[in-house]
Amino acid sequence: MSDLASDVNATADARRGMARPVVLVGLMGAGKTVVGRRLARALGVSFRDADEEVVAAAGMSIPDIFELYGEAAFRDLERRVVARLMRDPPGVLALGGGAFVDPEIRSLVKAAATSVWLRADLDTLLRRTERKRDARPLLAAGEPREILRELMERRHPVYAEADLVVDTGEQPVEVVVTRIRDLLTDRAAGS
């Protein structure tokens, strides 16, 4: 079978497994948005970014929400937005870095979706977040390496509860997308 035919069959198999949304979780800089957009395109389904949806619902940026109302208000809005998004037809949803840590969101995702932890090492996360530090309120509170290291220590055990784990790093995005698609295909086949 040709590579193209193999890719088409794998995509069709993975799409059959789309009775449930695919939810990408992981730290900021893990690649959830970039991978999510490409994965959705490969599967022929919609893509939503929870952070973008929170911004649209609030009518202001995430840093502004944090500054004006605090993290607790942001997390409350995030819970409501994710619950709404989970009612949409199955597609690919990228959660903000702290969303899956929230017990209510995690419970909702576990009940209604297939979760994929995009895991990246500290140096990769630092490099990827460097350009957008002003848009990432948690990194504004101190030295980014230490903040990310602490977030990894606290959040990795929770992210490990995801259904699937895919490492991201130096490999091209398409390699990550193919790996996720293959894991979804295996899951749909009951492997």
- Return the CATH architecture: 3-Layer(aba) Sandwich
**Secondary-structure-derived class:** alpha/beta
Determine the number of helices (DSSP H or I, runs of at least 4 residues).
9
Number of E strands:
5
CATH fold-level label: Rossmann fold
**What Rg is obtained from the alpha carbons, in whole angstroms?**
16 Å
N- and C-termini, Cα separation: 22 Å
Give the amount of beta strand, in percent: 5-15%
Give the tally of structural domains.
Answer: 1
- Walk across the major sheet and give the strand order: 2-3-1-4-5
Biggest pleated sheet: 5 strands, parallel
Report what the structure shows.
The structure is a single chain. The chain has one domain (about 15-185): P-loop containing nucleotide triphosphate hydrolases (Rossmann fold), CATH 3.40.50. About 55% of the residues lie in helices and about 10% in strands. The chain is built from 9 helices and 5 strands, in the order αβαβαααβαβααβα. A 5-stranded parallel sheet has the order 2-3-1-4-5, sandwiched between helices. The longest helix has 16 residues, at about 70-85. It starts with a helix and ends with a helix. Residues about 1-15 have low confidence and may be disordered.
